[in-house]
Design goal:
Strand content: 15-25%
Number of helices: 7
Number of domains: 1
CATH class: Alpha Beta
Helix content: 25-40%
Largest sheet: 6 strands, mixed
CATH superfamily: Metallo-dependent phosphatases
Structural class: alpha/beta
Oligomer: single chain
Strand order of the largest sheet: 1-11-10-2-3-4
């Protein structure tokens, strides 16, 4: 049974959110996590559950294609709607694919893109114009429709974070996908709590203004899910 403690923000009664951190091609861990979430929901039913993936599904790990295929299932966790956010690694792939520019291609390949190409049966030496023939159309369409943020109750879910001093509606795409500082060290009050991944840590980070759940699944750590309901939170790990 999951242990729940006091959370830094609240959700309306009857809602529960399961938010999963950076996957990076670790499909085996994602499968286990979805099973843990399904078991928790079966043990503790609630009217409005929601699954949120915080981005960085691809790169570095060996099973990026399998992760995307899993996300494409009608309900990765049975009877639970899902929101899939974009990470900076998905953004790097799309920039390389759409621009074809050598700098963009090399940036992506040097940050784990070669492993993603291999999961689609492509060599890192393959030409960009050939990628579109090998990347499954439905997986590419999924990447293009990923959201940048999700708001629920007293929480904002985003891949990397937000820039202090900038209203939520004016936050830049680049910051939401890439920012570390000054976001990580900022202790001010947003008026909500930011739930994010992007910056790997040995364990979850819980602050009055943010919850960081990238625990380095592909770096020898674990895949983490924060479970939020009313004024409480808990964690699942795979």
């Amino acid at each position: 049974m999951i242990t729940l403690t006091l959370a830094p923000a609240t959700l309306p009664p009857g809602q529960r959110i399961y938010a999963i951190g950076d996957v990076h091609g670790c499909d085996d861990r994602l499968q286990v996590m979805h099973q843990l979430i399904a078991a928790d929901l079966a043990a503790r039913p609630i009217g409005q559950p929601l699954l949120v993936h915080l981005g960085d599904y691809i790169d570095r790990g060996e099973a990026s294609a399998a992760v995307l295929a899993r996300l494409l299932r009608a309900a990765p966790v049975p009877a639970m709607p899902a929101v899939n956010l974009m990470g900076n690694h998905e953004a790097m792939l799309l920039e390389a694919l759409d621009s074809g520019e050598s700098d963009a291609v090399m940036q992506w390949l040097s940050n784990g893109g070669a492993e993603t190409l291999a999961s689609w049966g492509l060599s890192r030496r393959s030409r960009v114009r050939d990628w579109g023939r090998s990347i499954p159309r439905e997986q590419l369409a999924l990447l293009r429709r990923l959201a940048l943020r999700h708001v629920a109750g007293g929480y904002v879910f985003v891949h990397a974070g937000l820039r202090p001093g900038v209203p939520l509606e004016r936050q830049s795409r680049h910051d939401m996908l890439w920012i570390r500082e000054p976001f990580l060290s900022w202790s001010g009050d947003w008026g909500f709590v930011v739930v994010h991944g992007h910056t790997p840590e040995h364990d979850v980070v819980v602050r009055p203004n943010r919850i960081g759940i990238d625990t380095g699944a592909v770096l020898g750590g674990v895949l983490t899910c924060v479970v939020l309901e009313e004024n409480r939170m808990g964690f699942l790990r795979a």
